[in-house]
Each structure stands twice: as C-alpha cells, then as structure tokens.
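Postdoc handover notes: sequence design on the structure in folder B. Input tokens:
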C-alpha cells in the first residue's frame, strides 16, 4: 500500500506543479518563456519526486512507465493495476488543488483550461497528435529503462537524467500537443477543464491516453530487444 500512496503523491505533485505552472505563465510561442518554464516545472517535479519516492515505488507517476516496467517483468499484473489507479487518483488530487488555487484565489489561468492537452499545435489532427505523443513517450520511457537498468550504473544521478529528459521532450511537444507522455497527467486536467467550460478537451483525450501507452509499450519492446 505504501508504494501506491507514494505514486498518488508523486502524480499529484507532478500535475500540481507542472500544470499549475502552465496555468500561471501560459505557453506563449512568441517569446518561448512559457514553454521553457512549463517544461522545467514538469522536469524538476520528476527530479524532486525521484529522490523523494523513488526508493519506495520507483517513482513511475505515469501509467506509460508502469506499463513498460510491467512488460519487462518489473511489476505483477496486480501491482500494475494498483499503480495506475493510484496515479490517476493523484492526477485528480493535483487538479483539485489547482481548482482551489485558481478558483478561490485571484489567479488567472493563462492556458484557459487547467493545463489540459490539445491538438491546436498540430492543426487539430488526431493522427499527428498521436504520432507526436508516441515519439515523445518512446524517447522518455527508453531513457527511464536505460537509466534504471542494473547494467547502467548511473547511481544517484538517475533521477536528474530522467527529469532533464522530461524537460527535453516538453520543449518540443508543448507547442504541438501540450506534451502528455502520461495519461494520468492528461485525464484529470481535461475533465476539470471541460467541467469549467473551457472548450471540449474530452474529445481529443483518447490521443493522450493511447499515444503514451503505445509509446511506452514500444519502448519496452525495443529496449528489451537491444539489451539482450
């Protein structure tokens, strides 16, 4: 149970600080500062949580990561389900915190929608969005599998490498899809945004669930084949 609580807390922190930063500063392509601040917020959240709960649950805080670990034998089916449930609940807890901050306080949501993902950057194309999310998640999860491999020997620097990689994929992905690479990060913000009347993020939500899961599964398959 402790590892599930750790995953819930970790995902809550990721959504609160990552999506919260996006809501606060916006993602302005003209200056790029919003992109970088949001990318750093997501990346640094992972760095913090990796060193906080990594020794408890492995700090997946992402169903796509848990899927890859499960496929490579690092989790049982029951543990995988428990991780995903905890991560989704953590995402909702994070969004609820943001709803309290931005709803009760005099704070402006610069994104207009709880940091929810969208397809505006790819012209509304679900196919293009799917490709973006698969590629970004593949790179991110491949890095995680490599860093956490017993053969890697990265020691205490693993969390930093993973956090920087998440920052790296966000820099490209934010302007395209808002960068999900994590179904638990996308689900709650989309539902909260829809409930608050900010567009219809639910329509494209499947892209940010399917894309990361496919990317994570492909990373698991490719990494396992290369590691042999």
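Designed sequence:
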């Amino acid at each position: 149970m402790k590892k599930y609580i750790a995953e819930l807390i970790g995902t809550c922190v990721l959504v609160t600080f990552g999506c919260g930063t996006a809501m606060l500063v916006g993602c302005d392509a003209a200056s790029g500062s919003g992109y970088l601040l949001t990318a750093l917020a997501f990346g640094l959240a992972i760095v913090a949580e990796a060193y906080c709960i990594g020794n408890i649950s492995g700090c997946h805080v992402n169903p796509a990561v848990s899927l890859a670990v499960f496929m490579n034998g690092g989790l049982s089916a029951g543990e995988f389900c428990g991780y995903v449930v905890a991560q989704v609940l953590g995402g909702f807890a994070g969004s609820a915190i943001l709803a309290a901050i931005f709803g009760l306080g005099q704070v402006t949501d610069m994104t207009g929608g709880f940091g929810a993902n969208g397809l505006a950057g790819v012209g509304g194309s679900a196919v293009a969005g799917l490709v973006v999310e698969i590629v970004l998640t593949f790179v991110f999860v491949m890095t995680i599998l490599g860093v956490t491999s017993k053969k890697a020997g990265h020691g205490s620097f693993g969390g930093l490498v993973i956090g920087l990689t998440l920052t790296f994929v966000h820099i490209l992905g934010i302007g395209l899809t808002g960068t999900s690479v994590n179904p638990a990060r996308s689900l709650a913000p989309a539902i909260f945004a829809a409930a608050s009347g900010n567009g219809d993020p639910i329509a494209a939500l499947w892209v940010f669930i399917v894309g990361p899961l496919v990317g994570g599964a492909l990373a698991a398959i490719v990494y396992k084949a290369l590691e042999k």
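Context for whoever picks this up: The radius of gyration is 16 Å. Don't rerun without checking with the PI first.
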